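Final report, closing paragraph on structural work. Over the funding period we assembled a curated collection of sequence-structure pairs, and we close with a single example.
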Amino acid sequence: MTELPKLGAPARRALSELGITCLEDLTRFSRAQIGNLHGVGPRTMSLLQAALSARGLSFQTAEAQVNAAKAKKAERNKP
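Its predicted structure, as stored:
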């Protein structure tokens, strides 16, 4: 697990509330989802994007979110 970059307290709290404690956790969320959090501004997004890119990681894409939602729905509908 890769530590998050140094962030301000409001951003760190917002991420923590979603269970994000390392860079790998960020890959479950889209850039828009994280960017909409209270305390996460352009500077924080830039730091997070750079840290993810440096490790070959990225925010979740819209297509991946749709596929995850479909898989979750299929799981709920299993007998």
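The two ends are 36 Å apart (CA to CA). Helices lie at 9-17, 23-26, 31-35, 42-54, 62-76. We thank the funder for supporting this effort.
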